[in-house]
Amino acid sequence: MKKKLFVLALIAAMTCMMFASCGGGGEGASDETGKVYYLNFKPEQDEQWQTLAAEYTEETGVPVTVVTAASGEYETTLMSEMGKDEAPTLFQVNGPVGLANWKDSCYDLAGTDVYGQLTSDAYALKDGDKVDGIAYVIESYGIITNKALLEKAGYTVDDIKSFDDLKKVAEDITARSDELGFSAFTSAGMDGSSDWRFKTHLANLPIYFEYQDDGIESTDAIKGTYLDNYKAIWDLYINNSTCDPKELANKTGDDARNEFTSGEAVFYQNGSWEWGGVVGDGLLAEDDVTMIPIYIGAGDEASQGLCTGTENYWCVNSNASEADIQATLDFMNWCVTSKEGTEAMANDMGFTIPFKAAVESNNGFVKQDIANTDAGLTPVSWNFTTMPSEEWKNGVGEALTAYAADQTDANWDAVKAAFVDGWATEYALANEG
Amino acid sequence: MDKALKKYAPIFVIPTTAAFIIGFVIPFIEGLYLSFCRFTTVSNAKWVGFDNFKYALTDADFRQSFVFTVSFAVVSIILINVGGLGLALLLTRKLRGTNIFRTIFFMPNLIGGIVLGYIWQILINCILSNAGKPLLALNSTAGYWGLIILMCWQQIGYMMIIYIAGLQNVPDDILEAAAIDGASPVKTFFRVKLPMIMPSITICVFLTLTNSFKLFDQNLALTAGAPKHSTEMLALNIYNTFYARAGMQWKGYGQSKAVIFCILVIVISMIQLRATRSREVQA
B225 or A236: which carries more pLDDT confidence? Predict the structure, then answer.
């Protein structure tokens, strides 16, 4: 009996030790100085963040952990990480809708140094007077254009200043595609790796013009005033592309990029983050690509710029210890003010950051956006952050795919229904209770 | 010897029990608790009573995915078990190359569900595209049969191995007695072999049943529920409830669906176990 008790005690002791060694890591030494745990949203820049974090630790001695969630898995990763004792001190939300889940965990950034560095209040994500998040990168998207191919077809980007011009050029290229050896548009793939370009980014344009008309910034019920324009540009994309519109359901983001870099198409709708994917060794020459605005035949096209905005907001976890919050704020401030930080963000990550000390980025699309703004064009803002839910985007995406495969009025009505009625339903569902 | 075993039993039992409690019992109870709460992370849960269950039971998509799951389960259980048993019968006949065939048929089971899903998506889309039919994303019939073909391809080999083991355990003297009594091969199969392999059938039906109900990876990769949630199975529906919309209430809804789902799977598999067990016989 005694022996049995002894054995039991031994096991108990061993089990305790096992847990102690699991849970005990990370505490101790750094309690006074605080530490930073950044859950990064952008897999493309993971390596650069790791380097920057190491540099900061070397300089200040404050430990910085950067973890990057896999593409499309940010919300799931964030949810499980936030439940832990060692939760992220710095995390991201994608805008007002994404904030809904996390606003109780957001530290009020009003009055902090890093907030004071913002170039405009428009880049802060506010809930009343409380500053829940601040944008740390500004991106642009439009139609990436292969200038060399466009010239081969007998045009230059200066010939495209409106939707009608774009339509004329695209349809001319399609008519002569056998002789030219390339198509107007890359495949508008509706696979999960690519459909966001249309169900989210392209859908931003009708939403933007409607908001402009009504003078609002978000809505609980979209009217769909510019859906005919949305149809016109979608028709143009799918009927002047490298593949049969019936095949679109299966086309991926890589397909479109490969078609563009191998010179099979002139136009490719995507954003400034794609710079490294289309320009470089074995890809296209820097001088051969540029980005033009997405014209849909609405608003004042002569002064329309690229779609420029952000869906990357930094939030500080209010549940972290005071020392950790301070350490995180210091780290953020260092990233956007120090020479190392700003240079790394501009050159290594290719970001334009909305902070006073920003260094000019070497990203050609970003430069194009700045040049456009200097020339007096008005950038189109990103309103897709007000889309009521992922479910809404999926509904529109599926309807677009169905319409592409079979271009009937009935199928377009389904797109309209998903867009307008879906918005109201999803808005109600997301904001109930 | 017996005494020594008894004395040291705790050493062998406690680690597993501890792991079971930590890895299953505690999370299960916490999950049950969370299904009555609104929450974003497990630490900020707020009690709301039966609201979540009310939503889950009135959600049309959830009911639709239940119907889809059941119709998938029925067809795939029959096809997989008939296919597995058929192959097992062929491959216990001492044909040449039996081992090679067994290995080949078993191999699909070693590939992960996500990978399989994407491979079959490419294959099926290719066929549909050549036939001029709408692709998987727009074609719920193709999605349904695609899932069944995929699961058959993956699971028949595994069930075959279990059936082979069962068939090899049928005593030769009984078969010989049947032969001497003049039973035809068909009769031998239905009257002698089938009752003798009832334990294998129990286990195979149980595995295919629970696998079909819990199916997630293959569903996500092959169709992701498209078009319009019509090929969405229960597990994927729960996942989508969790992540498709922002707002705290959705986590609770998803959690309550998960609890309903869990109870459902337990009840159905219990009924099945009881039904097939009662037919098992001893040699």
Answer: A236
Domain match, A276 and A300 both: yes
Give the DSSP letter of residue A358: P
Cα B143 from chain centre: 18
Maximum distance among all alpha carbons in chain B?
73
My answer on whether A183 and A242 are in the same domain is yes
Same domain, A331 and A269: no
Instruction: Tell me how close the Cα of B244 comes to any Cα of chain A, in angstroms.
Output: 5
List the domain range (segments joined by +) for residue A325: 32-138+310-356
- Which of A314, A315, A331, A318 is closest to A33 using CA atoms? A331
* CB-based contact B244 A394, cutoff 8 Å: yes
> Under a CB-based contact definition with an 8 Å cutoff, are residues B207 and B42 in contact?
no
With cut-offs at 50, 70 and 90, classify the pLDDT of residue A29. very low
Q: Please check whether residue A149 is in contact with residue A159, taking contact to mean a CB–CB distance below 8 angstroms.
A: no
Q: Least CA distance to B230: which residue of chain A? A: A398
Counting as low any pLDDT under 50, the low residues of chain B are none
Specify the CATH number for the domain of residue A253.
Answer: 3.40.190.10
Find tokens 């209010």 and name the residue.
A318
A147/A236 same-domain check: yes
pLDDT in tens, A249-268: 888 889 999 999 999 999 99
Question: Dihedral angle at the C-alpha atoms of B175, B181, B184, B190, nearest 10 degrees?
Answer: -60
Asked if B137's CB is within 8 angstroms of A249's CB, the reply is: yes
Neighbours of B86 (CB within 10 A): 13
Alpha-carbon distance values, A259 to A160, A245, A279 (Å): 22, 15, 14
Residue A8 forms contact with B (CB below 8 Å) = yes
Identify whether residues A297 and A318 lie together within a single domain: no
Residue A19 lies in a domain: no
Is position A13 within any domain? no
- The answer to the question of residue A376 being in a domain is no
Asked if residue A261 and residue A398 are part of one domain, the reply reads yes
- Please list every residue in chain B whose beta carbon sits closer than 8 Å to the beta carbon of residue A430: 245-247
Candidates A105, A192, A389; nearest CB to B224: A192
- What pLDDT is attached to residue A10? 53
Under 8 Å between Cβ of B52 and B258: no
Report yes or no: B27 at the A interface, CB cutoff 8 Å.
no
Domains observed in chain B: 50-277 (1.10.3720.10)
- Cis amide leading into B227 (omega within 30): yes
> Nearest CB to A249: which of B14, B135, B240?
B135
Cβ contact A260:A242 at 8 Å: no
Statement to judge: residues A283 and A406 lie in one domain: yes
Asked whether residue A315 falls in the same domain as residue A302, the answer is no
ipTM above 0.85, yes or no: no
Residue A301 CA: distances (Å) to CA of A172, A298, B184: 21, 7, 84
pLDDT at A22 over 50: no
- Indicate the number of domains in chain A: 2
Asked which of A320, A341, A356 is the last residue of a domain, the reply is A356
pTM, whole model, 2 decimals?
Answer: 0.82
Domain assignment of residue A7, yes or no = no
